[in-house]
Amino acid sequence: MPSLPSLFEMLSALIAIPTISSMKPELDQSNQLVITQLANWCETIGFRCQIQAIPDHPTKFNLIAQLGEGDQGLVFAGHSDTVPYDLTRWQTDPFRLVEKNQRLYGLGMSDMKSFFALALAAIVQFNAKQLRHPVLLVATADEESSMSGAKYLLESAQLRARYALIGEPTNLQPIRMHKGIFMEAIHLTGLSGHSSDPTLGRSALEGMYQVVGEILNWRNELQSKYYHPAFHVPIPTVNLGHIFGGDSPNRICGDCELHIDVRLLPGMELTEIREELQHRVQQRMINSGLEVKFITLFDGIAPMETPTTSAIVLETERLTGYPAQAVAFGTEAPFLQQLGIETVILGAGDIAQAHQPNEFLAIDRLNLMINILTQLIQKFCL
Length: 382
Ligand SMILES: [Zn+2]
Description:
Number of helices: 9
Bound molecules: zinc ion
Number of domains: 2
Helix content: 25-40%
Order of helices and strands: HHEEEEEHEHEEEHEEHEEHEHEEH
Strand content: 15-25%
Oligomer: single chain
CATH class of the largest domain: Alpha Beta
Radius of gyration: 24 Å
Shape: elongated
Largest sheet: 6 strands, mixed
CATH topology of the largest domain: Aminopeptidase
Strand order of the largest sheet: 1-2-6-3-7-15
């Protein structure tokens, strides 16, 4: 039997390599070393590995590793990056695996580098000859920032499989749907001038008052049109989060900008909803004499829903004893779904741990997760 390092050694190695991703360039790091480490382990046990260099992101890579042949396989997928950390609030070195109180501490233990080691510990029990359908390990870049990895995975269309499990932290409970999200800025440019004579300018702030009214009307319409009882907040939401403009009470406001966050239910199409927003605002501003500009703050993640009748949903429900749920956070699942892969999200970590100092994974979760992954391979690949 080919040998991998022990689970503890793999976890230590993954945690020891910093792979922070951030929209702030001074914090952003390469994920190359984790990707090559995973590829090395995969090759040791007989996988074919493809490392994808992500266009326009020179230090970022995806891994697609496949054991066995065919395009009807099972994917274990996750992101190789972590969020930045606040060292003053960590009690241990975030890049050293520390065992304490039946827990393993380290940055990425819950969200979600540990998943790759657990997946390998499950896969190593099988060899390619036994597999009727392949097992794949997919590791992406930049999930915590731009999603460049998942976007390129979709664009490159190199990944072919039937089912996928994403090991994001879910407390060992299957998730089959989440909302989509995008963030947009609306910038109005008018003309500043002395406040004593309104004819000297065009107020961007007064224009924004109209825009806000239009957006709130649009929100009401969306909320009466779309409803999904599986979600804790069962309607789409639009949050007016940030506004700024003008410079002085005695000047006409020349520029004003509003930032909003829109959360979509499954069944709502991201591009369509964004265009609808832009169209509504443009129509409202048509005779205002103000210039309207839209700035994409966050491209967006589509909403996702895998049907209750999907075999991967039924099987993960059976193995965990929990009905598949909806969550409030976005994942890479919609990108896999668009590749025609039926996807659930199920991981050993606790979402309460993710993005927090002193992130850990409870040791008793390790074998529970390896068992689930092992049984999924038996069900879908043998
Ligand atoms: Zn994550």
